[in-house]
Structures are given as structure tokens and as C-alpha cells.
Design the sequence.
């Protein structure tokens, strides 16, 4: 994906866009991204409370950034690493901790669906034509049906089985469900909802304000921003932190609105590079400082 993306624009042209970009907007976008991650770390504290744990915000914050960094190795591996970090430093059982992270993802998925509905409302024709051209509805239906059928069969097999492996799986799933259901047991539901909305508002604003860094994109419509944001979000979920796929997802979205291709691709690389640099720095520092911070707490 990196090779393909860079083959579509000359390196000298891309470098020139980086040089000419207004870094005030890029720094503002990065700051909004950091705010969203701070809010995510704080939001998780509400989910741990119903399980009987009171984790430290600092550990939660470092676990979030460590998870984002680890996602650059294997997609979604960061969620497993985050739960492991919370197990090691906060004593929260892995299955329950991972369950709360799954619940978080459910809340985030709902927010992404709301953004998709808003984009559909604004630009239904564009989105419909895009998916109609790219995907066969019958193939999509068959794929979903097969996945559901296999999942149901596996669930019924594990539920009836009495083997040691099945018992361990059922115990793990029980803890996972307990963690996921913590969202309904928390006392501060409205605070959780506020932070969820705030996180995604910061994501969208982060994306939007960064477009002002390039003069060629300053007349971009809100609908284009939303669709670009949605496709970019899917690219991050499907690959190692969106490497290579992030700028191409943005190009696909922006071309639907007749935005120039080179500035769109350059924006994708500027956006991805600035956010990734922060994740590498804060994620790397978090992985280094986590054992130091918790050793100090233990000895005090």
C-alpha cells in the first residue's frame, strides 16, 4: 500500500506539499487528537468501577498510547496489549479488562454509525453509487450469512461441550461478557456518554482542521470531510495503523467531490504522519515509563 500510494505522486511533489503546509493547523489537529486519547483513557475508568476496580488514570493513559503503537505491528493487537497492561499493573483480570475494551468498541461503533448516517443524509447519492460500483450486494449477503452460520455453530458446540478446552473458553467468555456489560452497570453513564461523543467530535475536528494546512483543500465541504473521515477510519481498522491505506482512502473519498488528487494524497500523508509521530513518541515513552511508574508506586 505504501509503494502504491507513493507511486501515484512524485516524492519531490509530496515533499513540497510538506514544506508548504501550514503547520499551525497541523499542530492544532495533533492537539485535538491528543485530547481525544486523554478522554478515552479517562472514559475507561468509568467502566472499571462496576467491576470493583479503581485504576490510575496515568496507567490508563499510557495503556491507550501503548495500544495505538502496538497496532502498527498487527491490526487490533493493541486491544489485547492494552488489556494485558491493565492486568499487569492494575490487577484487573484479562478477560474482564478485555471485555470493557470490547464494550468501548461497541460504543465507538455506534458513534461511527451515527457519523455514517449523517454522511448518508448529506450525500446519499455519492455513497450509494460508490458502494454499488465496488460491491456486489448478493456476495455481501452470502459472506455475512456464512460468517453468522459458522459463529452460531461454534457457539452451540462450545455451549454443549464439557471438554477442558470448552470449559476454559466458556469461563473466558463469561468474564468477557461481564466486562462488556459493565457499560450498563456504571454509575456515571452520562459522563461516559459525554466522553464518547467528545472523543469522536475531536476525531472529526482533528481531520477537518488539518485540511486547512493545504490551500488547495480549504474549500472542502463538510460532506467530503465526513466521507473522507469514515473511509480513513476503516483503513486504520483494516491495516497496521492505516499505513499506506490511509492516504489512498482519503483520495478515494475526496475524488468523489472533485477535489484535486495530488493535494488529497499529500493531505493523507501529512495527516497520517503527524498523528503517527505523536503515537510513536507518546506510545514509546509509555511502554518505557509504565514499569518505572508502577515500580515507584509499589515501593512508596
Sequence:
Amino acid at each position: 500500500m505504501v509503494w502504491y500510494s507513493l507511486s501515484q505522486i512524485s516524492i519531490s511533489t509530496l515533499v513540497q506539499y510538506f514544506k508548504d503546509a501550514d503547520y499551525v493547523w497541523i499542530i492544532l489537529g495533533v492537539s485535538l487528537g491528543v485530547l481525544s486519547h486523554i478522554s478515552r483513557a479517562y472514559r475507561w475508568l468509568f467502566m472499571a468501577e462496576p467491576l470493583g476496580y479503581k485504576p490510575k488514570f496515568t496507567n490508563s493513559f499510557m495503556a491507550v498510547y501503548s495500544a495505538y503503537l502496538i497496532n502498527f505491528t498487527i491490526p487490533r493487537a493493541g486491544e489485547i496489549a492494552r488489556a494485558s497492561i491493565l492486568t499487569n499493573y492494575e490487577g484487573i483480570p484479562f478477560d474482564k479488562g478485555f471485555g470493557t475494551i470490547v464494550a468501548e468498541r461497541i460504543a465507538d461503533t455506534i458513534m461511527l454509525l451515527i457519523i455514517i448516517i449523517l454522511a448518508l443524509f448529506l450525500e446519499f447519492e455519492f455513497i450509494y453509487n460508490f458502494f454499488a460500483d465496488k460491491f456486489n450486494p448478493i456476495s455481501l449477503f452470502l459472506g455475512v450469512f456464512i460468517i453468522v452460520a459458522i459463529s452460531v455453530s461454534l457457539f452451540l458446540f462450545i455451549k454443549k461441550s464439557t471438554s477442558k478446552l470448552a470449559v476454559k473458553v466458556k469461563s473466558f467468555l463469561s468474564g468477557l461478557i461481564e466486562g462488556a456489560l459493565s457499560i450498563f452497570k456504571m454509575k456515571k453513564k452520562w459522563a461516559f456518554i459525554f466522553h464518547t461523543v467528545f472523543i469522536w467530535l475531536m476525531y472529526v475536528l482533528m481531520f477537518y482542521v488539518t485540511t486547512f494546512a493545504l490551500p488547495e483543500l480549504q474549500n472542502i465541504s463538510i460532506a467530503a470531510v465526513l466521507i473522507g473521515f469514515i473511509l480513513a477510519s476503516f483503513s486504520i481498522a483494516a491495516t497496521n495503523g492505516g499505513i499506506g491505506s490511509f492516504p489512498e482512502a482519503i483520495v478515494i473519498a475526496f475524488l468523489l467531490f472533485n477535489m484535486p488528487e495530488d493535494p488529497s494524497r499529500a493531505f493523507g500523508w501529512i495527516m497520517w504522519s503527524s498523528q503517527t509521530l505523536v503515537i510513536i513518541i507518546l506510545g514509546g515513552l509509555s511502554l518505557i515509563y509504565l514499569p518505572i511508574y508502577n515500580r515507584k508506586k509499589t515501593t512508596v
